[in-house]
Amino acid sequence: MRPQIVLFGDSITEQSFRSGGWGASLTDTYSRKADVLVRGYGGYNTIWALFLLHHIFPLDSSKPPVATTVFFGANDAALLGRSSESQHVPIEEYKDNLRKIACHLKECNPTMLIALITPPPVDEERNYARTNEATGTYAKGCIEVAKELGLFSVDLWSKMQETEGWQKKYLRDGLHLTPEGNRVVYKEVISVFNETRLSAEEMPLDCPRQSEINPKNPEKAFQQKCL
Amino acid sequence: MRPQIVLFGDSITEQSFRSGGWGASLTDTYSRKADVLVRGYGGYNTIWALFLLHHIFPLDSSKPPVATTVFFGANDAALLGRSSESQHVPIEEYKDNLRKIACHLKECNPTMLIALITPPPVDEERNYARTNEATGTYAKGCIEVAKELGLFSVDLWSKMQETEGWQKKYLRDGLHLTPEGNRVVYKEVISVFNETRLSAEEMPLDCPRQSEINPKNPEKAFQQKCL
């Protein structure tokens, strides 16, 4: 019934409804306007994400999502020869997988708003499977694909590093986000959405506000305002 | 695709995705298992809720929700002669409206898990439109309807008052919930769900865990485990 916004990604998306989470904040912002559905898969890289495309975004859906955030790369960037190497995906393959994801989403709904989000930076003191520099290469690749395909993007890797002490302020364990880190994702994503027709402020409420209901004749407001 | 759990109610439901909110916590618990959809309408009483039934829960839906929380009464209990009297609904009419809501939901899906939640208690020092005693009458009425119709229920009004200092601990403004108050709702609702087939722990994940994926042959896990 309501437009749907899908959050597609790895654990940073899966955990986005914990206290202070960016997914919960988006849901709150789109309250009575759009449904936010979380499709986060802990540990997944873009190779495994491809297997989910037809499952999560069937091409024959009569009501495909109006927007999707695509937030992979933190696992793809795990280094060979270290503890998480089974998640590693070479950079060119990562970029190509992002292209495939975006193409599928466009096929699903040609007007879908697609926002690619780069992986966050890495605090190497607490995460031994990754380097910040290597993850930066994936972030750069993600932004390049967004530009190439005319998609929206959030350069989280760069944005977070603009703030002194980002390592502890934004990262809970060197990779996953603190509530403050979640706040950054929320602000960046909502600022992308606000540039578009999906600006929450401009979307209509699904039913009358309380102030529009005349208690003596409530029918009228519901006849006029129920979308 | 995934089973849907709907949260139907007034502002206490609408605000349930703010930081620490009970709706966000439910979404996190059902991550990769069920979608939680918020249908909260600030200021609404059960009279106005009735206008939304066919809109939110169409009878011809091919995939109706598997569970719905029904959380009204805080506004119905607003007293006549005080500032929020336009929201007032007489107690017997409130009970009858809850019956109508429950019957519609059962018609929508005969196996739907329906949980009625009573309004929270009121801190009269900070909310002048209500008394705690009057709201207690609505809470009692809500529990009676649940028993009468064989529905699940959460007696939030009683539960919260078991804790010393509930007024400030659980209520932000005398009526709406603090993060601690949200925690109580979450714990009570999840404990109801845990008694049923919708226990999150027993519901299957929608796709393989990372640990089930063999990086050298990922197809296999997806063929076996994608629901």
In short:
Two copies of one chain form a homodimer. Chain A has 227 residues and is of the alpha/beta class.
What does the model show?
Chains A, B: Belongs to the 'GDSL' lipolytic enzyme family. Chains A, B: Residues 208-227 are annotated as: Disordered. Chains A, B: Keywords: Hydrolase, Lipid degradation, Lipid metabolism. Chains A, B: InterPro entries: GDSL, Iah1-like, SGNH_hydro_sf. Chains A, B: This is GDSL esterase/lipase At5g62930-like. Two copies of one chain form a homodimer. Chain A is an alpha/beta fold. The first copy, chain A, has one domain (4-225): SGNH hydrolase (Rossmann fold). Chain A has nine helices and five strands; from the N terminus they run βααβαβαβαβαααα. A five-stranded parallel beta sheet of chain A has the order 2-1-3-4-5, sandwiched between helices. In chain A, strand 4, helix 5 (132-149) and strand 5 form a beta-alpha-beta unit. The radius of gyration of chain A is 19 Å and the shape is globular. The interface between A and B is large, with 44 and 44 residues.
